[in-house]
Amino acid sequence: MSTEKEPIVHIQEHSKDRVKFILENVDLALANSVRRVMMADIPTVAIDMVEIESNTTVLPDEFIAHRLGQIPLVSANCDEGLRYTRDCNCMNGCKFCTVILSLQVSCSEEGKTMMVTSNQLEVIPQQDLYDDGAEEMSKRPENFGQPVGKDDAAAEPILICKMRKGMELKARCIAKKGIAKEHAKWSPCSAVGFEYDPHNRLRHTTYWFEDDVKSEWPLSENAQLEEPVKEDEEFDYNAKPNKFYMDVETDGSLGPQEVVLKGLQELQTKLANLILGLKAEPEADTTAHGEAGFGQAEAAPPGWAVPAGAAGATGGGWGQNQALTNGTGGGGAWGSTSPRAGGSGGGAWGGAASHTRYWWRMGCWC
Amino acid sequence: MAQEDFDVPMDTQEQEQDVDLEKIKLLPNASDDGTSASFQVIDEDHTLGNALRYIIMKNPEVEFCGYSIPHPSENKLNIRIQTYGNITAVEALHQGLDNLSELCVTIEGNFREQLEKVGTNI
């Protein structure tokens, strides 16, 4: 550390939904951690459960639930203003851990196609069924939980579905706090640009080419900020990347500067948790090896029973009129409990309110 | 009803504490003098693992540090640390965590500074 140069941050561009900056004098591992943490570990609010009261549009319930889930909601100061439902003391959702939005649209106009958009989603203030006097509410901005761009006339709203005369869509949406590791809809970033070594001096990549690499692979604009590789330059196999060009673009749920700062804070929280865990570890020092280590190893498996039990409980929710819908790739884990029952259950309920919860996970289970 | 509600937080708090205790554990292959050891961290991934590996490896007292995620569908992260003998593996891990935290603070500070310079021209 001591011989290292101090990390440098240089912001090139900064706008409402984007910040472009150069991170210098850090290692690839750290720059990548920053990127990963910004994409997947920052909490935001997103619709997680949809109770559909009536839906006579051409789109099926789960289709609409899926679309609603992906609408970005204003999540400024979400880590202080909202709790995770799993950490909340309430029984079944309260104003401290959920935001309720309602969508009530019907079309009565003849011969015209009507658009149902995110602008028709209204945040419903929640009654104080549960109130432990916490101060979360005061930490929220006024438009907390509202669809992004609702109060901005210039912003085009997000289309949810289209309807003709006689069609109706009534739904109650329960938005919760979550992170993108669970579902990509909770990611505050729409894209994170991450580039280093634009001239490929370090040869971390090999370009495929037809005849000539240089003419076939246009250089990125960041290449102007670095010396091109000379013809006779010797390859330095010890060289390490040092300058990282990052471009954070958000979906509007959080500001870009907020994403970067929250990301770095989140990384520190991870470290702090580990330090805490390390302190809690009884006699982790030199004496703890062999048996002590084993004892703890055996203590671990029961911990796994908890998530399994939770999954079972959700499966049980079936009886209570809950439709759990598995999205693409979600399959594996929920397997036995839900998907097929989901199809028939939804049908059987007919007019009754069906609760559609949509799960879709990043990546695959392979 | 209110009383029942009140009972819930105590339980959850206890559970959270339990989870925290199992955040990291020593794997059963540490050397007798504690200069080399492996740890297993629960619920962490490459985000923490790679950066931590790098910063621990940077420590001149550390001979080797590596990490692995033994199975992609288990949320476990293994870290192996071997030192030259002047510090224990646990100390090296502590120093690594502190250094990385410090580094994050520095970057955060620099970013804030830059933000002020650029100004919020939104």
Automatic annotation (TrEMBL), chain A:
Signal sequence region: none
SMART domains from the UniProt entry: RPOLD
UniProt keyword list: DNA-directed RNA polymerase, Nucleus, Transcription
Main location: nucleus
MF GO annotations: DNA-directed RNA polymerase activity; protein dimerization activity
Gene3D superfamilies: DNA-directed RNA polymerase, insert domain, RNA polymerase, RBP11-like subunit
CDD domains on file: RNAP_II_RPB3
Region spans: Disordered: 309-345
Localization: Nucleus
Database matches in InterPro entries: DNA-dir_RNA_pol_insert, DNA-dir_RNA_pol_RpoA/D/Rpb3, RBP11-like, RNAP_Rpo3/Rpb3/RPAC1, RNApol_insert_sf, Rpo3/RPB3_RNA_Pol_subunit
One GO biological process term: transcription by RNA polymerase II
One Gene Ontology CC term in the entry: RNA polymerase II, core complex
DNA-directed RNA polymerase RpoA/D/Rpb3-type domain span: 18-277
Alphabetical list of Pfam families matching this protein: RNA_pol_A_bac (PF01000), RNA_pol_L (PF01193)
Record family assignment: Belongs to the archaeal Rpo3/eukaryotic RPB3 RNA polymerase subunit family.
Entry protein name: DNA-directed RNA polymerase II subunit RPB3
Taxonomic lineage: Eukaryota, Fungi, Dikarya, Basidiomycota, Agaricomycotina
UniProtKB/TrEMBL annotation, chain B:
Membrane-crossing residue ranges in chain numbering: none
GO molecular function: DNA binding; DNA-directed RNA polymerase activity; protein dimerization activity
Gene Ontology CC, one term: RNA polymerase I complex
HAMAP family attached to this UniProt entry: RNApol_arch_Rpo11
Database matches in PROSITE patterns: RNA_POL_L_13KD (PS01154)
Domain DNA-directed RNA polymerase RBP11-like dimerisation residue range list: 37-108
Location within or outside the cell: Nucleus
Keyword vocabulary terms for this entry: DNA-directed RNA polymerase, Nucleus, Transcription
Family the entry assigns: Belongs to the archaeal Rpo11/eukaryotic RPB11/RPC19 RNA polymerase subunit family.
An example Gene Ontology biological process: transcription by RNA polymerase III
Protein source organism: Cerrena zonata
Pfam families: RNA_pol_L_2
InterPro entries: RBP11-like, RBP11-like_dimer, RNA_pol_Rpb11_13-16kDa_CS, RNAP_AC19, Rpo11-like
This protein's name: DNA-directed RNA polymerases I and III subunit RPAC2
